[in-house]
Each structure stands twice: as C-alpha cells, then as structure tokens.
Design goal:
Blueprint lengths: L3 E4 L7 H7 L3 E4 L14 E4 L12 H6 L1 H9 L3 E5 L5 E3 L7 E14 L13 E12 L2 E5 L5 E8 L2 E6 L7 H7 L10
Parallel strand pairs: 1-2, 1-3, 3-4, 4-10
Antiparallel strand pairs: 5-6, 6-7, 6-8, 8-9, 9-10
Amino acid sequence: MPDVSFLSDRGNAFETTFTEYGYTCQQVVPPAFGSPFSPPSKLLIIPSGFADKKYYKLLPALERCESQIKTFIENGGIVLAFGAMLTDYTYDWLPIKLSYHMRFKTQNVTLVDPKDPAALLVEPGEKDCDGFFTEYDGNVVMKDAEGRPVLVSKKYGEGYIIGAALHEYPSKQFLDWACAKERKPINI
C-alpha cells in the first residue's frame, strides 16, 4: 500500500525523491483513478499543469471522481493540488472554493502562518511560482512578493486540502506529517 498516490498519465515525477525520504509513491493513471485498481493512500498529489491538455489528460478523471475525492479528504486523506497552468482556473472538483491565476515568476515567498501543517511543504525564500490563488476557502500559508497567496490550506473533515502555486518538490518534513504512521491509508 503506497503512502502517496500521484495522479499522472506521464510517469511518476516524485517516486525517486520520495523513496529517498523513506516513503512509497505510486502513479495512478486516470482510467484507474477512483476504481478498485487505485490503491488506498494517505496523500494524493495532483501535479502542476494538470488542467492543461498539453501536459496531462487528468481533468476527466478528477471531475468523474469529485465525490470520491471529497470522501477521501473527509475521512483523513490529504490532497496536494499544484497549479493548474491555465490563465484562470477554478478547482471545481474540490469541495472548497479554490481559484487560480497563472503567472510564472521567480520571487521571494514569505511564510504567513508557520503553525499550519502546509508550512512544512517548502522553506520560504526565492521560489519558482507558476501563479497565485485569487479565491480560496481556508488559510493563507505563504504569499508572494506582491502579497498574493501561493500556498493555501483548509482542514476539511479529518483531512486537508492544500493548494500550491509553487514549482517545488514537497520537503521530507511535509511527507513526515502527511504520511505519519498514525494516518491511515484511504481509498479514493
């Protein structure tokens, strides 16, 4: 049973790094997502560019499994959704309000709420940002140099929804929290 599920039709970008951290990360292809062939996990990662068809073909699977994603989160799962990479995008398949605007820029990212578990995702400082969030339910965890949210978090039921407009791999500390031994794997 993997610690992390990575929804992708283009390989598993996180597997090597997460293995080095001591965690398992399994790619789930869109046709298997939400089916009995999609193993339970603690953390679901939706990659940067997921909404742009030139990068991935994931939107039909996310939209088809909207209610299953909601149940996954309510029961303790964590969803880490990266930037959509479309000019403007609303994450309609999540059970909270989350909207994004694409704008690539390397900039100084500052920590707003160090107590939020999402603050473990990356260290503040110079980061590649692919955009920012224009609407969100929840907590601003990090903001860009212009004061716009680039990392937001919302506790939802027993789980969390984390939106990240950052082009960065999750830190080991974040995985230690998201994939803690006391957290149970959940089916999508």
